[in-house]
Design goal:
The protein has 391 residues and is α/β, with parallel strands linked by helices. It is built from 14 helices and 13 strands. It has a seven-stranded mixed beta sheet with strand order 3-4-5-6-2-1-7. A hairpin with an 8-residue loop joins strand 1 and strand 2. The longest helix is centred in the C-terminal third of the chain and has 16 residues. It is globular.
Length: 391
Amino acid sequence: MIDRDHATPRASQTVACVLTGGGRSAVAVVAIAGEKAKAIVDRYFDPAFRRTFRPGQVRYGQWVGQDDSAVATESVVITPLDDSSFEVHCHGGVAATRRIMDDLAVAGALAIEPNQWVCGRMPPLIAEATAVLAGCVTARTAAIAMDQVRGALQGWATTSFDGLQQSPVSAHDVRLQAADILRSAVVTARLTVPFRVVLVGPPNVGKSSLVNAIVGYDRSITMDVAGTTRDVLHADTVIDGLPIRISDTAGIRVSDEPIEREGIKRARGAAVDADLVVRVVQPGIPPLDDVVHAATIDVMNKMDTLASDSCVDQSVVGTIATTGQGIELLMDRIVSVLTQAMPSPGAAAAINRRQAWLIRAIAESDDAVAQTMLLQELLTPTSDHESQFDE
Ligand SMILES: Nc1nc2c(ncn2[C@@H]2O[C@H](COP(=O)(O)OP(=O)(O)OP(=O)(O)O)[C@@H](O)[C@H]2O)c(=O)[nH]1
Ligand SMILES: [Mg+2]
């Protein structure tokens, strides 16, 4: 077993790092870099075809490991990144990667964490995007992080910084562009956490039934008794490529019962913290006017009980949770509200709070000198801002 060294490795140190996330996955990637990297690969890797390693070209073969290893060889693919750094694509999972990391440790490579790996190997904005990309759980959020790994924000910041020095770019232009990037930051600065969608409404209108219909299984108990749900219940799901944590809550009404009152308090608190509130009612029951939020969707559930001569406002989504009617439309509406601020493909985006904070400051300034300093801080952070901005 190897311990990861949290100290900053010396520049001459040969280092190894598992780049892929933990857990069970089909393929893992282990990176090796440093002056001994080539010798280590030559020692442990038996290529199927003996040809010179060229950066970017893949080589299939066997990882033979330490000479006295009782473990069988493992099929791997090696990609040289340059003369002194390599990626080993091996089987995923803990055991396979640990075995390779153990071999590398025996050969003298220091095991480091992914954030230490990216640090210093790429511009800070690209390194930050790479770290975020590793935490994205859907293709849609990963695509935004990937655009930044490919240099969208880096390109904008560099062009603006250089442009302000030589004056082809005005402070006014930079301010407008920063404001444009900032518009999507509400989504992009938190790509690795799910959107919080909270259902609220009076008791017995079908909130739990709607949650179950949306997630596709019986997450919440439903019953024809007002006050069935007592606490805030969460279910994680993905809708149209968006990671969403959907929360069921206790029906809101005046109550003297202490447990129910606590549940109602929690329901109101969950609505305040939500990215989107779904206000549910049923025919004949008025909406909760005191639950207000910047992003809301109004739902009329139990449409099957609506009197035939009644009509419902066009903006209200009609559903029958028990049959699934209207659920697709509700999910489409949820996605469309949450993605209003999505950046267009390839656009620069602020993918963490440090970046969002600096871009907001740029968007609020018309002064070229101030903007230049902020852009410089964006491109080359002088301190560990992420921890400063963490909640
Ligand atoms: N007719 C009809 N009944 C429904 C519909 N949706 C839910 N119900 C029924 O309404 C009753 C209450 O549903 P719940 O989902 O438990 O309601 P709730 O809003 O979560 O209730 P509380 O947890 O008490 O606040 C259950 O018997 C459901 O089967 C619907 O669209 N039509
Ligand atoms: Mg309920």
